[in-house]
UniProtKB/TrEMBL annotation:
GO terms for biological process: proteolysis. It comes from Forsythia ovata. GO terms for molecular function: peptidase activity. Keywords: Hydrolase, Protease. Belongs to the peptidase C48 family. The keyword Endoplasmic reticulum does not apply. This is Ubiquitin-like protease family profile domain-containing protein. Residues 2-96 form the Ubiquitin-like protease family profile domain. Gene3D superfamilies: Adenoviral Proteinase, Chain A.
Length: 101
């Protein structure tokens, strides 16, 4: 059973794996639909990343973590120092995005 815990630093790796198991099952099924077939998703917990200092940057942190990991950059480089610049950059990208078909 998933219990919301805003501070996951106290959770064990086994607890996190158990909480994420339903999501990994769904993700594997979605990947299979687009012809990407893998047997197992490996969950890697990174504990050396910085924590956000407010309650409003979690989405920007998540986007930057995904971006950094997808281009093989160290996730530890994501920190609050650049957050105002990244927040403005994301806002401009979303504002100027052309979503016409």
């Amino acid at each position: 059973m998933f219990i919301y815990d805003p501070d996951r630093s106290c959770s064990t790796d086994d607890q996190i794996r158990a909480d994420l198991k339903p999501m990994t099952t769904i993700l594997l099924m979605l990947l299979k639909k687009i012809n990407i077939v893998i047997d197992v998703l490996v969950i890697e917990r990174i504990t050396t990343t910085s924590k956000q200092s407010n309650s409003g940057d979690c989405g920007v942190y998540a986007i930057k973590y995904i971006e950094f990991l997808s281009i093989s950059r160290q996730a530890e480089l994501v920190n609050g120092f650049h957050m105002p610049k990244w927040r403005r950059k994301l806002a401009v990208e979303l504002y100027t995005f052309d979503c016409t078909p």
